[in-house]
Amino acid sequence: MQTLLLDRTTWDLVLDAGGNIAVASDPYSITQDVACAVRVFVGECWYDTAKGLAYAGTILGRAQSASVFRAQAQAVALAVPGVASARCVLTALGGDRRLAGALLVTTSDGTTDSVGF
Description:
Number of domains: 1
CATH topology: Nuclear Transport Factor 2, Chain: A
Number of helices: 3
Helix content: 25-40%
Largest sheet: 3 strands, antiparallel
Protein name: Burkholderia phage Bcep781 gp51
Number of strands: 5
Organism: Acetobacter garciniae
Radius of gyration: 15 Å
CATH class: Alpha Beta
Distance between the termini: 24 Å
Shape: globular
C-alpha cells in the first residue's frame, strides 16, 4: 500500500528527487496512516465524519481523559488497513497538561514500529 509522504516536522507534502510529490510504501505508509488517523477529530473528515477521536466530547478538558485517549487511539489505529495490533503507551502527563507517549503498531506482515505524540 502507498500513501503520500509527509514531512515528519511540518506534516506537509514532500517532493522526491525529481520534483514530484513523494509517496511512502509499506511498512512506513501504515505507520504514517496511523499517525494521521490519531490526529483527526471526529467529524473533521468530510468524506467520513465518523472517523477520528472524540477529542472535543470525551478527551479535552475531561477528568480521566488519558485512559479514554488510550482506548480511542488504539481503536482508531486498529481501523487502519494493514494494522494487526496497536498499543498506546502514555509516558507523561505534565503540569502543562501535555500528554506524551507512543502508539506501538504491528502490521499484518509482523513489522513493528512506533508513532510518537
